[in-house]
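Hi R.,

Here's the chain you asked about this morning:
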Amino acid sequence: MISPFAVVSPDAQIGDNVEIGPFCLIEAGVTIGNDCKFASNVVIKSGVTIGNKNQFYEGSVIGGAPQHVSAPPPFGQVRIGDGNIFREYATVHCSLKEVGATVIGNENYLMVNAHVGHDCIIGNNNILVNNVMIGGHVVMGHRAMLGGGTAVHQNCRIGSLAMIGGQARVVQDVPPFVTVDGLTSKIVGLNLIGLRRSGRTTEEIKTLKSAYFTLYRSGLTWQETLRTFQENYSTGVAAELTQFLSATKRGIVRERAAYRNQLRVVESDEVGNGEGAAPIALRAIG
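And here is the predicted structure, written out as tokens:
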């Protein structure tokens, strides 16, 4: 089911039951699986391999050249799994190197204007809300959620089941299972709702709470923290957290609680509500 107004290269490989809308461009060297749907004005560049049951909405561009000022062609590939949704104007760029690939797993949801940079590896069941910007070489686990306008610096890692609030700026690794506040871009605890929805048991969540306390509130040095995790959390649900911490190169996002001593209570009379009234606000010191 290909619109007569679409441009599809005869050298593209198209699976069964594929719908391609008007003004789409499918270049040579593209492979498309079964049951995929392309709305109007979708561009799929050379070197893109797409699995089954993916949906591409208006204006999405997959396989564009990396946004890099000095990298010469030829560029690499984009590999997309099954059941993903790319909403309007979502973009995914190919690898910087001819032998490399940007990889999107299965059942991810990229909302309007979401961007995945070159050489990223995105796992399964992740949600990228409107205007999410992911720099090159970012690695993301499974079932993470990035709120609208989140910006992720190149070479960072996002752990599985992490939830990141809208407009956060991520410049270090976000461990698995945590929540990042969009306002401060700091960690504010475990993603308890996500953990329960993913089927984690009460005992597993209790173990993760203990691991979280060790990581952020025990006062241990980094090397002491790693030794403690390797001794106490090398198996079970927390093992993923141990592996993640052991492999970090950029460091991890800090907890917001570390900044509580920089706040003081502002009395209401300081803002004109009368002497002796109850405290109504917090104000940063300095």
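One quick note: The first strand starts at residue 7 and ends at 8.

Cheers,
M.
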